[in-house]
Structure formats: C-alpha cells, structure tokens
Amino acid sequence: MHLHLIYQLPAPRERVFAAMTDPAVLQRCIPGCEQMIKDGEDSYEAHLQVGFAGLKGKYRGRARVEDRRPPESYTLTVDGKGAPGFVRATSRMCLGEKGEGTEVICDADVQIGGVIAAVGSRLLDAAARKMADDFFRALSRELTPMSAAQ
Amino acid sequence: MVNPTKHVGQPMKRVEDPRLIKGIATYVDDLRLPGMLHAAFLRSPHAHARIRRIETGAAKAMPGVVGVFTGADVNDQCGVVPCAAAIPDLKAPKHTVLAGERAYFAGHPVAVVVAQNAYVARDAADAIDVDYEPLPVVTDPERAIAGGSPLTHPELGTNVAYVHSVSSGDIDEAFRGADRVVRQRMVHQRLTPMPIEPRGCVASYHPGDQTLTLWSSTQVPHLVRTLLPGMISVPENKLRVVAPEVGGGFGAKLNVYAEEALCAHLAMRLGAPVKWIESRRENAAATIHGRDQIGEYEVAVTRDGRVLGIKARSVADLGSYLQLLTPAIPTLTGLVLTGCYKIPAITMEIVGVYTNKMATDAYRGAGRPEATYLIERLMNLIADDLKLDPIEIRLKNFPQPDEFPFHTATDLQYDSGNYQAALKEAQRLADWPALVRQRDDARAAGRLFGIGVSTYVEICGMGPSKAMPAGGWEWGCVRIEISGKVTVITGVSPHGQGEETSFAQIVADRLGVPIGDVVVLHGDTNIAHYGRDTYGSRGLVVGGPAIVMCIDKIIAKASALAAHLLSVSVDDVEFRDGRFVEKKKPDNSVDWARLAGEAYIAKNLPPAFEPGLEASSFYEPENFTYPFGTHIVAVEVDRETGDVKIVKYVAVDDCGVQINPLLVEGQVQGGIAHSIGQALFERTVYDENGQLLTGEFMDYPLARAHDIPDYVMGSTVTPSPGNPLGAKGVGEAGTIGATPAIANAVMDALGPLGIRHLELPLTPERIWRAIGQHAGVAAG
Fold first, then answer.
1. How far apart are CA A13 and CA A17, in angstroms?
2. Contacts of B689 in chain A (CB under 8 A)
3. Structural domains in chain A (count)
C-alpha cells in the first residue's frame, strides 16, 4: 500500500527534523509506543502496543533513518513484528519551508503480513492514515511553544 | 418377496437431525480425555522466507507449557504429507509436517506448542520468536511459468509441477472444417471451502497395548488410517481413526493433514492425549482451497451450431505443495470438458503450477464445476456469436437417449441419460414462454433482465478401482443381532449426506424389518474395519450396493436356516415381508427374531451351518455414474449498483433412482447455495506479496440467507444400470449445475449493453464497472 500524506507543523525545518529523529519525542508521539531506544547511529529499537482490525498486539521492531539530509529530507524504514503479523514500511520524508512553519510530505510504502493482512487489509489504509494523523498531531503539540511551557 | 418401496423413495426426515438440532451430538471439540493437552501452531506470516533461527525459550518458560517443537524436533520423526495422485513426471516438494529451512506460504506451520490448556498454548505460540529472511514470492501462476520468475521451490528448478494432456479425435480436422471459431479466456477463481466446523483432532496413545486413537474432523477416517502409518511409527492394525460428528467437509476434509500426524506423534512422545482445534483464520489460511484455473479456450463450430472440437490450455494454480489429491483435481476438468455434448475432438493441456499459496485440492465438485462452467459458458458464447438460441444449440449437440451408454471423446462411458427430458422439464417448471416474455418486457422497459441455462453432466460414484489411486470399492456389513435388531456398518463416512437414514430405508425394505430396528454405524475404523469413505458423491452409489450385497448373502443364509427350522427344503421357502414362509403352507413361517435367536444360540442348526447372521461385502463398481440435469436462472441486474438479484431459480436434477427425495433436495439446495457464493461473491485473494487477504467471513463472503432465492426443484429419473440401486449420486450436482446457469443469466442481462463475458465472481463492483465502460457512462 502506498500512502501520500502532507502535514503542516508550527516550527522551522531544523526543529522539526531534530524532533522527528529524537527517540524521546518519537516515543511520546507515536501512538502506542512504549519504548524507543536509540541503539546505534540513526537506528532505534521500538516496542509498540497497537490495536488494529480488532487485533490488539505487541510489536517489536527496528526503525532506521537513512539518506539523512537535514533539514530537508530523510528516509525512514520500519521493520516490526508481533504475534498478529509483521509490518514493513519505507517512507521518504521531505520537509519544506512553509511560511513560519514546515510542511512534511511523506511518501510511504507499507506492507503487512500474517493475520493482520488476512483480516485487516481492508482497514490498513484508514488505520495507517489515522496513526500518521495522530503522530503528527502529537508532534505538532510538541513543537508548539505554549505546550512546551506548560 | 421384498417390499422395496415402503421406505425407499419416501421423503423421510433424517434420523441424524434430532441430535444435531438439539446440540447433543459429539464433535471433536466436545471430546475431553483425562490429562488431555492442547496444541497450538505458530504459522509463518511470510509467503516465502528462509527461517534463520527460532527462539523458543520464552515460550517454553511460560507456566503450563509442556513442550515447544520446531521442524528440527519433529521432521525427521514424521513422514512427509502424502499425495496419492498418480501423475506421470510429477515434480513435488517434500512437504514436512513443520516447515524446515523455508516457509513457503503464509500460514505454513513453523512450530507447535503443547500446553495444559488451549489459551496458554496460543499465547506461548505467540511468544516464539522466529527470524525470517524474506525470499522472492510467486503469486501469479501465469507469470510463474514465464521466464525469469522466482521459484516457489528452488530445489525443483521450475514452478511447473506437471503438464497433463488430453487428446482425442482429429482436432486439426475439426478446426479445418469449422465455419467459426469461438475463443474466450476464462478465469476460475480460487475458493475457500469454509466448512462451519473447522478441522480439529484429538490423539491418544495407549502405552500398554501400544495403540493410537485419532479422532479427527475428517471425511476419510479410513484413508487416514491407511496413510498415517507412513507418517508416524504406528502400524495400521494398532491405529484407530474415528470421525465423530463432522460439521461440513466439502472436500476440505478429504485429506490427511500435517496437524493430524503431529498431534498423533506428540501424543506418543508426551504420553498424554493431545487436542488441536483449528481457528477460523487458520482454516482460511491452511486448509485446502479449491478451483483456481485460468485458461484459453477455442471451440470449432459449424454455422448451424454443431460443436466440432475444443482446444483448451489451462494453468492450474496448485499452491505451494501437494495435499492428497492436489494435482489430480485439474485433470478431472479435462476428463469432462465435453460436458453433455457429442463433441468428437478435444485437446486440453493442463499445466499444474506451484505458487506461494495454500495448496488447492478437492472442493465440492472438484474439477467438474470448472469443466461445466467452461463448456456451458462456451455454449452460450457460441449461441451469441451465431445468433442462435442457447436452448437450441444445446439440443443440437446432446446425444440422443438411445445413444446411451454414450462414449465420450475423453474415453468416458456415460452410463445412462436423457438430457432432453431434463431440459424440457426445467423449461416446463420455469414456465419458459412466460419467463422469456418477462425478460423481453423488462428489456423493452430498459431493465437489465437475463435468463441463464446450464445443462450439465458430472462424474459420480467414485469409482472403479482401476481409476482411483487407493481403490474405489466400498465395504459394508449387515448383522442381524440375536434380538432380531439390525446393525448396518458402512465404510463410507457420512458427514451430512444422511446415510444413517437412507441406508436404513434400503435395509428395512429389503429385510422387511421396522426401520426403527435398523442402526447404521460408520466413521470408526475399529467398527467399520474397511472403507473408502465419503467424497465424489460415492456414499450411496458405492456404499449402498455393498450393503445390498450383504443383505442378499444374509437372506440366502437365513433361508437355509429357515428351511431347517420349518422342516422343508430350501426350495420350498420364500422370503416375504420379513418372514421366511413355506410356499405351500404360509402358516408355517419364521421371523427374523426367531432365526437370529437360533443362529446365535446354535443348538439347532443345519449340518455345516456357520452360527450367526452376519455378512460383509466389498462392492467394486464397474463404472462411474453420470448424473445430469438442467438449471434455469432468471436474474435482474441493478443498473445503478451492479447488484444481481436472482428472480427465479429452477433446478432439475437427474440422480437416478432417489432413495430419499428429501435428502436429494437438501443436497441440491446446499450445492446451489455454494454456487451462488461462487458465482456472485466468493474469491480467495492473495496480494502480490502472497499475503492472504480473505482470512475471515468479513472478507470472504459466503452466500447468506437473504441471498438465497426460493428454489423450484424438480427431477427426472434415469436409473443407472451400473448398480443394484439405480442411484447416481447427488452431493455435488448443485455446485456443478448452478454456477454457469447464474453466470449465463447475468451475461444475458448485460448482453444488450455489449458485454460479452465477465469473470466470476460477478460482484456489484465488477458489473458496475463493466456497465460504466460499455455504456460510456463515467463510472465515478
């Protein structure tokens, strides 16, 4: 499945880029993320608890940042697996200046397998969009000065 | 004298039903044995992957877990999953009970956990960590045999399992002499059988007498007993296989599966009974699928619609490995592709192809629905091309009733038939002229209304042993108990076909005993010592005659005893209404109760008379049987939504002599329901990565109650000359006749828009898009 998503964030590109590659920020912003550990240069180990297609499950996986060109772009690859199946995704993240803020364009290819594919494929598109929406909404809050002060 | 019609021919309710309706029947999952453990399988989420490492420590450490086993632990102790099909030059992978170095379909079992309860077993299976290295996936069978495709099994060096050719008559002459050649590519989609009860088994080993008992939700307990000793180290005569109540099979349980062998192996290894019950999702992913053929078809015809020859090339997607009959199923398509027509020449090439999917195998009709769909669609396409009436073209190509037994180009001998009569009866029941008027009026009003006809013949009563991989005979036993009650034991294994009722009808009439005194036993290899089980519409047709043979033997034996007791010669004794009577002095008679008592107490027997009143028989059929019929369907298609509504459904099936018309009707109704699903809704879908996308009923829509129309059911009766019952079998008729009739009706409805052919299933989306394209209306 291919996703083309665009989000607006209220901070300059440098801050957005830094936040999007900061394991602490990612742990707070990725829905269901229980742990995000940086275990190498541009490599993170993640533990997620996600409900999808009526299947709640724990997923463990590795995320890698590749082709890093701060503050313009990077490629995020995710390889996760859990009892309900596996998720593999590659997403090109492009950060553009948009007024005071930043426009993030992500082009993602997502592949799922196992039980989640067998029972949830028809929901994948909507579920992936929702996860991305939730992530960028949380990230937007992170980057809003007021919420940082609270 | 026998009164053969007191029960036979009556629409008697099934004796099986009260226990099923009341919920007091025993299915595998109802079994509880002391100390019983529970198995759960971990299945590959990848369609094709190398298994680098399996980490079982966390699973083993979970409280309640008794053992965790991977391929490395069991594959050298269990034989490979058997395939009984004899196909020349067949290339086959060794399918071990658990995946070895590679998993090659999504759902391939990789490890098994045994635990004290099913929930712990499932949780522990989820705690196993497998390191997979994904490998290139083969999903499209046509691309699989084109150059440069990845390989499902690299060790075979090809994705081609076999090439099977059927050739008869002078095909070149047929096409040279043709006025017209009609061509069509057709796709017969993959289907998931989806019995309501998934698979399941319980294995229990008795270390004292070293016997193993396997209860399994199977159609074929005897085939399992024959084949399992090749997989686990238990000799056939120490193995008991029991099929308790089975909640639907449809071919999906005509098999020997890895899980059965593994549960048996683990029960021995762990010294405790092991139960496994398949989940619905596992059933969708790892129980056999059906159909799945793609082909190019060409028919040579004369101007007036006579079919001279068929050229067919089809690619059959076998999935990733061979189950019991996987490669044989598509070859049945070639065998019966000429349908109920006199077609002098045919060539068919079937290429069996491996892809990274679940194996296909026999699903209700098994190869014959594919053939019937092809030929019946082709007949309509010919009629369209030549502007002939679809009924007329069928009549033109039918053999005449006096041409039976009819020898086909594919070397089958159709036993008996009157195809014209079935067609005529269906037209009568459909009120044909009024139906045609209704269509024409609807069309004139701009509505999409169509009528579809299919005339079919199928191969049943499987079958003559020379044509069957493991013998096609059937065994039976009839015993008059000391009390005069009658016990019938059959080697067929009914699971919905109702032979506890139909066999009792036959036996009660032939022995002249009350039907309530007859009990039919089946499905336990310790009771029915031999058998070839239930599939291919064989239960009544092959199992029934074995029972009739037993009855004949018992009556002959009882006559000798009766003569002795009546102090007359055997020639002076007549059997009449359940009594053995002195012909000249009818008052002098004995009944079964007295005969049975004497036969077992054995104090007053004729010289050299063996005690007891029991006979067993093997019946070997000389030929298959060939039931046939005509289905007529009227549909209306909603132009706005593409939705198909079945307006009228008429089924006329000729299954020879009907022992119980209620059972016949039930079988046909169930078969049509399956076909409605196939024609309009069902399709097993894998994505390009080999992921199964239709893993449950949300994504795999079976026909529901509101999709099923009222059926107008009729029949003609052309007895089979091949067996003493004159019966032909009816288990698959509905699935064979109905699909092309529905497809032809929908295509007739869409014909005025210029739509010639659409593939199944004829979903609203597919039809709506086609309407949009052909009407030049933007489809959204």
1. 6
2. 111, 113
3. 1
